[in-house]
Design goal:
CATH class of one domain: Mainly Alpha
Strand content: 5-15%
Structural class: alpha/beta
CATH architecture of one domain: Orthogonal Bundle
CATH superfamily of one domain: Isoleucyl-tRNA Synthetase, Domain 1
Length: about 600
């Protein structure tokens, strides 16, 4: 049993004996004592003051006295107002370490058949361009959140909705048809998603030229955009697509297959995956059906031009378009259809959408519409709203000069990691293949950690150079510490030390602090799941690594002559490495065995 639970149960017993209060030990959560006070764990006594009919300091004193007398783990205590600071018996910390050692998958709760089922949607790319920097943050957050929710004992389905239809897709298709000259990924040597992205940009170039030409003839910008022959041709293509025109559908399937192959390559390198992929082309009709059903029931209304809308003014919002005048769908229609299919496919307890904060309004509307359409789970959907990510001006701009492609970004990160690692001598003695594997692990680890350590709800600037630093709050700093620990353990194994017997050892202050931080890991995982925040895990691992490095500096390990003390420090090192690996895995980050 963890030290937190031991103290919580002891406090519950004290409350019953002292004040006849029936307190659930599960609801008593000891906190780590603040550094300015003596103690390891703190209990806040205010919840019981009224029933005990005594001042907070007196309640703290009486509980503290009871614990010293009745709980062997408690050495002494002090009370600051309503805060009971408990000092754990130094020798007891070894049993805490032993508990961590003996617990398989420490900190991770396995799901059961009855565990809540979360569906987490992330990525949601368009098939008209490659994944970019914004998608990188989205994918990393979605994947990490899924892993954290699983570690909290939930069943999780990772899902993706691919926006494979719509006017933006038709723009790329029309550009390829007009100016592609039969280009394929094979003939151009380009990844399919990059090739299609080039045609999307080409469409925009010709469209702008048309608009400028029409404006030069006296039209306003809006009039010119509406009159653009190219844009009208794209709109006509969308109508033909919805009418299942064989020629348009054939072109669409061919170009999408190129994009999917490119996406799969990017996802694999990024280390993210999905259990189920939905396609807008397969869900939008379900959405149209629900909207027309809502129209019949009077939930929606039709305008004179034939478009269908929802009036949400009574809910403090505005009027929302659901079907255009020509009968084609909008994103909201597709999301309604996708939600319907998902809940038919899975007994979902909680639906989580990982989508940027620019879509906050969209999900307010979606939640209301789903509720109005009779889906009982509509009001309970979770929009995991995250902030935007940008690069410092002038850094690694893509070929178009506006967006940073995910593939380009990963290449740049691995290249920088290779260069920095070589300069620092981290690759000395490694084969070329081993050095390349380290560069890939460190480069992608730096990228992922830098993006995930920030509170997801905040906007952030990603600085590639700053992220690949072997000092400070970075992925490489954590990875290097892990590799250092593995090196220590290999040296011990070479000397025949593989079992660690530290019976009878009383840990010193640095060792106790490290054990207590390790003991916090399960609560940290639970907190990250509750807050939907991978940054909680990232910053915990960083603090653990900082603490280990201080311990490593102050407490000799292999040079320690006392075998039992050396065993304690080796056990501490092994458990720390295990927790680092577990924590980083929850962020989707690999740790190298040697560096």
């Amino acid at each position: 049993m963890s030290i937190d639970r031991i103290i919580a149960q002891a406090v519950a017993h004290a409350l019953k004996e002292l004040y006849n209060i029936d307190a659930d030990a599960a609801g008593i959560v000891p906190e780590t004592t603040k550094k300015e006070f003596e103690g390891n764990l703190t209990i806040i006594v205010f919840p019981w003051v009224k029933t005990a009919r005594k001042a907070p300091a007196m309640v703290g004193k009486e509980i503290g006295d009871w614990l010293v007398e009745n709980e062997p783990a408690v050495s002494r205590y002090n009370v600051i107002n309503g805060f009971l600071n408990i000092v754990i018996e130094p020798g007891f910390w070894c049993s805490v370490l032993k508990h961590i050692e003996d617990t398989p998958n420490y900190g991770i709760t396995e799901a059961t058949a009855d565990s809540p089922l979360y569906m987490v949607e992330y990525s949601s790319p368009n098939t008209n361009k490659p994944l970019h920097l914004g998608h990188v943050r989205n994918n990393l957050l979605g994947f990490s959140l899924s892993e954290i929710l699983k570690a909290c004992g939930n069943r999780v389905v990772k899902t993706n909705i691919v926006n494979d239809r719509g006017i933006h897709i038709c723009k790329s298709m029309l550009a390829w048809k007009k100016w592609g000259e039969g280009a394929t990924p094979e003939s151009t040597g380009k990844k399919g998603d990059h090739l299609i992205g080039d045609f999307y940009v080409l469409f925009d170039k010709h469209f702008k030229a048309e608009v400028n030409e029409l404006m030069a003839k006296g039209m306003t910008e809006d009039e010119a955009k509406a009159a653009s022959p190219l844009m009208n041709e794209a709109r006509e293509m969308l109508v033909r697509w919805e009418q299942k025109d064989p020629e348009i559908r054939g072109l669409w399937e061919m170009m999408n297959s190129w994009v999917y192959a490119g996406f799969d390559e990017t996802y694999k390198r990024m280390g993210v995956d999905f259990d189920k992929i939905y396609y807008e082309s397969q869900t939008y009709l379900e959405g149209k059906e629900k909207v027309l059903e809502g129209l019949e029931k009077g939930i929606m209304y039709r305008k004179e031009d034939g478009s269908v809308w929802a009036d949400l003014t009574a809910d403090g919002l505005d009027h929302k378009l659901l079907l255009r005048a020509d009968g084609t769908s909008v994103y909201m229609t597709q999301d309604i259809g996708t939600a319907k299919l998902r809940y038919a496919d899975y007994p979902i307890d909680k639906m989580v959408y990982v989508v940027g904060n620019e879509q906050n309004y969209h999900f307010q509307v979606l939640s209301l519409l789903l509720d109005k359409l009779g889906f009982k789970w509509g009001k309970d959907l979770v929009h995991f709203s995250y902030g935007m990510v940008e690069l410092p001006e002038g850094k690694m701009k893509s070929r178009e000069g506006t967006v940073v492609d995910a593939d380009d970004l990963m290449d740049e990160m691995v290249g920088t990691a290779r260069e920095v690692s070589r300069e620092l001598g981290k690759l000395d003695g490694l084969t070329e293949a081993e050095a390349e594997e380290i560069a890939e692990t460190v480069g992608l680890g730096a990228l992922k950690y830098f993006l995930l350590k920030v509170d997801p709800r905040k906007n952030m600037t990603f600085n590639p150079k700053e992220s690949i630093d072997f000092n400070g709050n970075t992925g490489p700093f954590i990875q290097y510490t892990y590799a250092r620990i593995r090196s220590v353990l290999r040296k011990a194994a070479e000397q025949g030390i593989t079992a660690f017997d530290y019976t009878g050892v009383t840990p010193n202050e640095k060792e106790i602090a490290l054990i207590q931080t390790l003991a916090d890991f399960p609560a940290t995982v639970a907190d990250a799941g509750k807050k939907f925040s991978p940054s909680v895990i990232a910053n915990y691992v960083y603090e653990l690594v900082k603490q280990y490095n201080q311990f490593y500096h102050d407490c000799p390990i292999m040079r320690e002559e006392n075998a039992a003390v050396r065993a304690l420090r080796l056990a501490l090192s092994e458990v720390t490495a295990s927790v680092i690996a577990s924590g980083m895995a929850l962020l989707g980050i690999r740790v190298p065995e040697r560096m």
